[in-house]
Design goal:
The complex is a heterodimer. Chain A is mostly helical. In chain A, 74% of the residues lie in helices and 0% in strands. The chains are: A mainly alpha, B mainly alpha.
Amino acid sequence: MSHPEDGEILEQFRTEQGREKAYTALIKKYQERIYWHIRRMVVEHEDTNDVMQNVFIKVWKGLDNFKENSQLYTWLYRIATNESISYLEQQKRKRADYSMSDMDGYLENKIKADQYFDAEKIEWKLQLAIQQLPEKQRIVFNLRYFDEMPYEEMSRVLETSEGGLKASYHHAAKKIEDILTKNASNY
Amino acid sequence: MKHAPHILDELNKAAPLLQHLPVLVPFTAPEGYFEEFPAHMLLQAKSTPSQTTFSVPEGYFDNFASKMLSMAKASENEAGLTSTPLLDSIHRKMPYSVPSEYFENFQASLPDQTQQIPVKGIFSIRRNLIRFSAVAAVLVMVITGLWMFNQTPPSNGSMVAVTPIATQLDSIDSETLSGYLDNTAKVEEFAYFLVQPVDNLEGSLEQLPTTDLVTFLENSPAMEPGT
């Protein structure tokens, strides 16, 4: 399925009659990438759907003021990342009696509660290992490992230096390998 | 799905195990979610006001500053913080002055002065000791005086022995005793005359024997008139 160019979407959005059509086109073009980015962070579909709606409401309100000097999907990723972090923070506050480690356990439990969860499959093991990373490393690892996002783009999304991102990804990959190796030796 | 070559190279250096893992997210989205999401989102976005849902009364901010100022003044009046118009008109600058550079030098001189000032206790032991000693000495003197005043002379021979009066009278001959009594009577009579009030002087003189008066005048030294 072919999608219109970002410039075309933006131009159409700024006209009264093309606004809704452009908005729909933008969602169709980016929804799956944004969805999976959010889903990897908040794990559960219902939570992901909530964050998705928050993200695209912000897009609706803010697209008029979007500066075309950055790529549209970079802007979308930034909104999605921030909304996901905010959502998790809200969850943390709701469970004020939970410590940070309990919060990590909360996401692990969500993974294990998935109807398709299979503890023997490596892709589930990988997801459980990712949840043991610090938040920043988790986001960097997901963006690089699954989305293969260039560090240059990632630095614009996360507003962090490329060097810092490379180091974070290196540490994250190493930790995940250690976790998986350790778990394999335990079985 | 496989990684791009540059991602594989990167993983090979950092964590070789991961380059062999499938690039697969095991989560699933509900069927038809992505088909329905754009239309659902459009409806939701259109129903969301672009601006805040709250509104303020017309002209609210026009007089807001002056309204707040009057409220602040009113609250000051309620708290009794405002003074009279006369006091308000007085300049609040302090009329007193301090020597030049007083405050600049104050901090530096303060420690020396503090060292020179003797520490005064609430009670001075030395001064109180002197007071107590003086009071004690006075008390000792008073008690001793009272004790001595109330003491009766001892009855044993520590004092001069007093000879009984009857024994002494036996040793005096009759003439001596008679002469003594005669002189004593005259003296007593004259002493009586002397202690009488002045207004009764004439009566007293009349009671005196004439011979006694003559004897008295002859033995008295001559007196100048008017003395």
